[in-house]
Input
Amino acid sequence: MNLVDPRTSVIKERLARITRIIAVSSGKGGVGKSMVATTLALTLAHNGCKVGLFDLDFTSPSTHVILGAQKVQPKEEKGIIPPTIHGLEYMSLVYFVGDNPAPLRGEDVSNALIELLAITQWGPLDFLVIDMPPGIGDAILDLVRLIERIEFLIVTTPSLLAFETVKKQANLLRELKMPIVGIIENMKMDVAVGIAEETGKLGIKYLGEIPYDPQVEGAIGNEKELLNTAIAKKLKQVAKGMIRKKESGS
Amino acid sequence: MHEWALAEAILTSAKQVAELEGLKEVVEVTIMVGELQQVEPPILRFALSQTKTGILKDAKFRILKAKSTLKCRVCGTTWQFNIKKLDKDTAEAIHFVPEVAHTYIKCPKCGSPDFEIVSGRGVWLENIKGAK
Output
């Protein structure tokens, strides 16, 4: 027989108690994925859902900073159990590398991802929100291969440069027959670029625009202030739509 | 313990392979354990013995260790992973996610963290014997 990697065989089981798995992603970096993913997870939790947040941006993790997570570690019990931070079951490579850089190549990213998916014991969750690294490389391809129920929420900015890569990502996901929750336009300023119309042309739901909010930087690390930002206000509507969809089972 | 999560993965995977090969009973499973992940064979063996069921219930488990060899992508130096050079917290981090070795281990010649794990990374099934 060929050598068999046993890890992938348990991933389905590890995720079996999670109703919906939402990967917050973008073809482009710097569009606010981590802020959207973290705030969406917090907003869902504040609406009574059981939520997990999984930071898959291994080389540049930041959700722990946004959450203000300090001095927490996962518990060992037949694998690892994510600690709960502000009501979220939270997993990140940061537990294992601290503030040090993790210079990983593509194959290492894939292996680390498989390892964490295989050993993390998530509880029963309504939503697992995944903060993806930018781009359309290994992480997206691995998640599509390993998690059959994954859905993608795509973040863009009003910049045509960002949307150009978002279009490529959307086309890739459609070729792979992966569900796309929608595209959200972050950091909207007074520029009429027409992302809503362009999203419509792709046949993808436009989830709305989040105005550029200069106050958001000051809310980093403070859960209550985060939930009062313009991002949170918009994501509250998105979260309610996701909860309705989960409850209706469609 | 991590070994319990691995045991579950090994049993699930071994069952899938056995079924694909049309085995009705598995007699022996050979497992290769890479040195980098520092899996404790006695704990893994105990976890397997406590959780094996179905066509694997009478299976024996051979656990072999593979040396971990690292090769620098910058200067080409090849060296062996040495657990004794790591502190407890670092060793434990690598135990859970071997790739974080790139955070803590550097090429002994040029100091680069850009190295390839040539062998001995994780755990894999090498052979399954059984009756059809």
In short: The longest strand of chain B covers residues 25-34. Chain B is about 35% helix and 30% strand. Strands of chain B lie at 25-34, 60-66, 69-72, 78-80, 115-119, 123-131.
